[in-house]
Write a structure and sequence with these properties.
- This protein is mainly alpha-helical.
- The chain has one domain.
- The chain has 10 helices and 4 strands; from the N terminus they run H-H-H-H-H-E-H-H-E-H-H-E-E-H.
- The strands form 2 sheets. It has a two-stranded antiparallel sheet with strand order 1-4.
- Helix 8 runs antiparallel to helix 9.
- The C terminus is likely disordered.
């Protein structure tokens, strides 16, 4: 990692904001949010089953619902629970089961495919139209791999959180209360670390570029800090303003769209920072086999 001087901070922040605005994050995030709503049931079913294979699907689903409730409110959590239940309905025949699993995988990976296209725009690359079915398979496999990683990271997060909570409760009657604050801070740091890893994996493997890890970690940490901060602010906003109430029965879907849009805009800001950071310190960035670099003249025309 290159050494950042104090004067670099302002210029990198300024250039990142310019890069972020030039990428039209509102349009990109709206597109991804639309596909996220379509992919969400299948995505959560797969993630819950992966993590639930160790701790039990009921426990994992309950934890996921709690987190969604904290972020978007109880109505949105109930709506997502209904989505998960509908997507999880058992199939009666072998053929129907296979088709159901294939549909789940295809649906769950759709949002990552759209994220890839958006990140490609930020990096000024585009998919080679001659790539064909092979590239589609690679894209969907990458999305599936990230889903498995999400399930694994969720499992680790819940195990560590449960252990810290149990240990903190055990020590409650022995040590002063300030020690519990220490455990709370450790839990927050662990959660932040897991989110940082997830963002880093997205920045590394989703776009059609080859970039080294040293270019990614700082941007991933900044992205995760902005994400966690914004998540807290949005939970207050959703709780006080209740923007979904204006839309009646579709209010929960609107809240999901708003939350995903915000998350995507933060993700795109992080990608813009990594692009500026890599350029600033001369880190090599190459285009992958099935993509082409957009010519500078095309970028200027946007």
């Amino acid at each position: 990692m290159g050494k950042i001087k104090l004067r670099d901070v302002w210029f990198m922040a300024r250039d990142t904001c310019k890069e972020w605005i030039a990428s039209d994050p509102w349009r990109l995030s709206a597109v991804v949010a639309y596909y996220a709503v379509l992919s969400l049931p299948a995505l959560l079913v797969i993630v819950i089953n992966i993590a639930g294979s160790v701790l039990g699907t009921d426990a994992i689903q309950g934890k996921v619902s709690d987190e969604i409730g904290k972020a978007m409110g109880s109505d949105a959590a109930k709506t997502i629970e209904i989505m998960i239940a509908s997507a999880s309905e058992g199939k009666k025949t072998t053929v129907a089961t296979i088709l159901g699993i294939a549909t789940l995988i295809f649906g769950a990976t759709g949002v990552f495919y759209q994220l890839q296209k958006s990140l490609n725009e930020i990096w000024d690359v585009k998919e080679n139209p001659k790539a064909g079915i092979k590239k589609l398979i690679i894209n969907r496999s990458t999305g599936l791999g990230l889903i498995i990683v999400i399930g694994f990271l969720l499992l680790i997060s819940l195990i560590i959180s449960s252990l810290l909570t149990a240990f903190g409760n055990y020590l409650r009657g022995i040590f002063p209360d300030y020690l519990l604050t220490v455990f709370y801070l450790i839990n927050m740091i662990v959660s932040l670390g897991i989110i940082t890893i997830l963002f880093a994996l997205m920045f590394k493997f989703l776009p059609d570029i080859k970039i080294k890890w040293k270019s990614i970690w700082l941007g991933s940490l900044i992205t995760s800090l902005l994400f966690v901060t914004g998540k807290y602010v949005l939970s207050i906003y959703f709780g006080k303003a209740d923007p979904g109430s204006t839309y009646g029965s579709t209010g929960s879907i609107i809240l999901i769209l708003l939350w995903v849009s915000y998350s995507c805009m933060i993700l795109f800001f992080g990608a813009g920072f990594i692009k500026i950071y890599a350029k600033k310190f001369g880190h090599p960035v190459e285009v992958k086999k099935f993509a082409n670099k957009i010519e500078i003249i095309e970028v200027m025309k946007k």
